[in-house]
Amino acid sequence: MALPDLPTAHSEPCSAALKTLIERGYVNQGTDLPGVDAAFEAGIVPAYAGFDATADSLHVGHLLLIMALRHLQQTGHKPIVLIGGGTTRIGDPSFRSEARPMLTDERIAANIEGIRKVFGRLLVFGDGPTDAVMVNNADWLDSIRWIDMLRDVGRHFSVNRMLSFDSVKSRLEKQENLSFLEFNYMILQAFDFLELTRRTGCRLQMGGADQWGNIINGIDLIRRTDGKEVFGVTTPLLTTPSGVKMGKTAAGAVWLNEDRLSPYDYWQ
């Protein structure tokens, strides 16, 4: 597998972490791969990936991100699993033709309990420097005051730039409705990255290739508000033979929880 271009004096990454991710095909894009490489070499890098609780099980598409976090932990870094208890109330509109169905708080809580199961099998949780931690963005999003959010966070976002992202532009070009509620999702995800940077020292956000615009927003927000250098890396998307993203809405979704899909059917 060819390595992604690294615009540095060396042709291959120096760090075991980045080298492993690239060799195993987990890197689709990176905001600054040489910078990520240097950060991995310099010490422990807290890195996070977010998972909204839109169903009571994750699916095989999420497994790429979980395994990427696992490889980071195995090479000496700290995984942060972010459960989107807050952002699930809105739903990520990225590359969707219509809004996600609104879920009740009770349904979201039940879904969170369902998706917790898989992480303990693949990540080591605890209090050590490289032990994984799990956080819920409802812990800070639920207490945000609207005026404070507009003043402290919203002012750093350009509507012109937000409209230019492919995930938004595709909806507008097809004249598909994009609600103001959904439009705010990218701001909340950016705020998650900022909050994790302040709370845990998180320096890297990982997400699927369809999260590129949301990740860029978070990096820019952190630079503008706190002046810190952080990074983003996306993983490739698993797709069906027709090229459609393989998720829970695809026919025959490949669930990770065995109560949703038997081990036999999973391996088939």
Structure commentary:
This protein has 268 residues and is an alpha/beta fold. It has helices at 16-23, 33-42, 60-74, 105-115, 119-122, 138-141, 146-152, 159-164, 166-173, 180-183, 185-200, 212-226, 263-267; strands spanning 29-30, 46-52, 78-84, 133-136, 204-208, 231-235. α12 (212-226) links the parallel β5 (204-208) and β6. α1 (16-23) packs antiparallel against α3 and α11 (185-200) crosses α12 (212-226). The model has no long low-confidence stretch (mean pLDDT 88).
Question: What is the compact description of this entry?
Answer:
The protein has 268 residues and is α/β, with parallel strands linked by helices. The protein is 42% helix and 11% strand. The chain has a 6-stranded mixed sheet with strand order 1-6-5-2-3-4, sandwiched between helices.
Strand content: 5-15%
- SSE topology string: HEHEHEHHEHHHHHHEHEH
Name the overall outline. Answer: globular
The first-to-last residue Cα distance is: 26 Å
Mean pLDDT: 88
Describe the biggest sheet? Answer: 6 strands, mixed
Structural class: alpha/beta
What are the low-pLDDT stretches, counting only 5+ consecutive residues below 50?
none
Please provide the count of β strands.
6
Question: Major sheet: order of its strands?
Answer: 1-6-5-2-3-4
Number of helices: 13
Give the helix proportion (percent range).
Answer: 40-55%
* Computed Rg: 18 Å
